[in-house]
Amino acid sequence: MTVQSPFRYSKSSPEVIRLAVILYVRYPLSLRNVEDLLHERGIDVTHETVRYWWNRFGPMFAAEIRRKRVEAMRQVTKWHWHWHLDEVFVKINGQTHYPWRAVDHEGEVWECYVTKTRDKDAALKFLKKLMRRHGNAKVLVTDKLRSYGAAIKELGLKDTRETAQRLNNRAENSHQPFRRRERAMLRFRRRRSLPKFASVHASVHNHFNKERHLSGRQNFKDRRDSALIEWRGLCIA
């Protein structure tokens, strides 16, 4: 069966759409900033078109990146690594929401989940979703929030939890790129856009995060080029 292209009803080329999405999601730019950058390249679109593109195609790109990464990592022998869990607060129209984040030992975000509370039930839903997708971890590193302890105890994983000081810096640092994007967007205005953008942003950030401080210049350039080539091939029917 022939797979139809998701770009078939779009008047713009897939290359332009991917460029607009990567500019908006990866970098701390507003919709109008992206519109101006595209205009400098001779591409005349409005900021509302950029908004539509990232809402329409961003989750598709993120899902394909996530699928390929999971398939690749399942082939690695040390699949069950350390999970670093943490949550932050985001206010939308005066109401506090909590994006929960699971990060592996290399700092890559593997799961995002948004709730209105951070009690035991919310932590339990987050952990079940994480383990359903990625399996169990050898170690669960958390802060001292009691919700984690209650949820982990109910799952029978009490012996895997660690809460030592500074041990969860991986998860704490993973919030920084998301916070920069939040400031550029002047915060979120709708509750349903928060989990969608958090998921898309995490996948795109993982895809282009090549940890340049841990490798030589040439190795970093090669990995960056391969990531860009893979991005340009997303969602090709």
3D architecture notes:
There is one protein chain. This protein is an alpha/beta fold and 237 residues long. The chain has 2 domains: 14-74 and 210-232, no CATH class; 82-191, Ribonuclease H-like superfamily/Ribonuclease H (Nucleotidyltransferase, domain 5, 2-Layer Sandwich). Helix content is 51%, strand content 13%. The protein contains 8 helices and 6 strands, in the order αααββββαβαβααα. Strands 1, 2, 3, 4, 5 and 6 form a 6-stranded mixed β-sheet that branches. Helix 4 packs across helix 5. It is globular, with a radius of gyration of 19 Å. The mean pLDDT is 87.
Q: Portion of residues in helices?
A: 40-55%
**Total beta strand runs:** 6
Number of domains: 2
Tell me, what's the shape?
Answer: globular
CATH architecture of the largest domain: 2-Layer Sandwich
Helix/strand order: HHHEEEEHEHEHHH
Biggest β-sheet description: 6 strands, mixed
Q: Which stretches are low in confidence, meaning pLDDT under 50 for 5 or more residues running?
A: none
Structural class: alpha/beta
If you compute it from the alpha carbons, what radius of gyration comes out, rounded to the nearest whole angstrom? 19 Å
Q: What name does CATH use for the topology of the largest domain?
A: Nucleotidyltransferase, domain 5
Q: What fraction strand? A: 5-15%
User: What's the CATH C level of the largest domain?
Assistant: Alpha Beta
CATH superfamily membership of the largest domain: Ribonuclease H-like superfamily/Ribonuclease H
Number of DSSP helices?
Answer: 8
**Overall pLDDT, averaged?**
87
Q: Report the end-to-end length measured between terminal Cα atoms.
A: 11 Å
